[in-house]
Amino acid sequence: MKKIQISPSILSADFSQLGNEIKRLEDAGADMIHVDVMDGHFVPNLTIGPPVIKTLRKYSELTFDVHLMISPVHKYIKDFADAGADIITIHPEATKNLKESINHIKSFKKKVGVSLNPDTKVSIIEKELENIDLVLVMSVHPGFGGQKFIPEVLEKIELLKKIRDKKKYKYDIEVDGGINFENSKSVISAGANILVSGTTIFKENDGNIKKNIETLKEV
Ligand code: DX5
Ligand code: ZN
Q1: 49-103 pLDDT tens trace
Q2: CA 105 to CA 132: how far, in whole Å?
Q3: Are 210 and 29 in contact (CB under 8 A)?
Q4: pTM greater than 0.90
């Protein structure tokens, strides 16, 4: 079994203190930093872009797990690679040619993630599964933190694990949206090995992020 890792989403952090928030996450035992990039077009919300990611880079050596909810995504991939993203995750609906965009991310020596919205089927990306490092399973409709987990995605996680085992593929299975202390165990037992969390990490137990990270990792 792959090691369970937590990728806190800075969407729920104090945006006026992002550098310090990232340091605080690193000290608390975060395995990576999940950065949600939204364009007000692919999703109905706006967040941050490459210049902010670049300035944050010096605050931590942790992997920057950058989730691009922008369309068309292809022409911006280089900017995120140059800004210091380590994993670049894209949605198949946001590019004309998924294979080309995957190869473009690889050309910058970055890890490639592909994200599936709650209504997007695994079959849409099945041909690319052998070429990618990570599948990001959305367990809410992307756009906002603090939404309710959609339990139907558990089946998709199980299917992705089954395919990976059968074909001996290597991708990580990361789950994003509405993860809390009640559903984290079922997400892990379905086959996920990376959990994204914003609200639970920053708000539970009076914001004790160390405790929250440890609790989410429990199996
Ligand atoms: C939703 C984002 C998520 C979200 C997670 O569009 O991709 O990363 O911020 O936050 P919580 O844990 O609050 O659902
Ligand atoms: Zn995300």
Answers
A1: 999 999 999 999 999 999 999 999 999 999 999 999 999 999 999 999 999 999 9
A2: 10
A3: yes
A4: yes
Question: 5: Cβ below 6 Å to ligand 1?
Answer: no
Q: Kind of pairing, strands 134-138 and 111-116?
A: parallel
Q: Provide the β-strand partners of residue 7.
A: 196
Q: Give, using CA atoms, the residue closest to atom 9 of ligand 1.
A: 145
Give me the residues paired with residue 34 across strands: 9, 65
pLDDT, tens digit (0-9, with 9 covering 90-100), for 120-172: 999 999 999 999 999 999 999 999 999 999 999 999 999 999 999 999 999 99
CA 170 to chain centre: 17
Ligand nearest the Cα atom of residue 195: 1
**Which DSSP symbol is given to 147?**
P
Q: How far is the CA of 215 from the centre of ligand 2 (A)?
A: 20
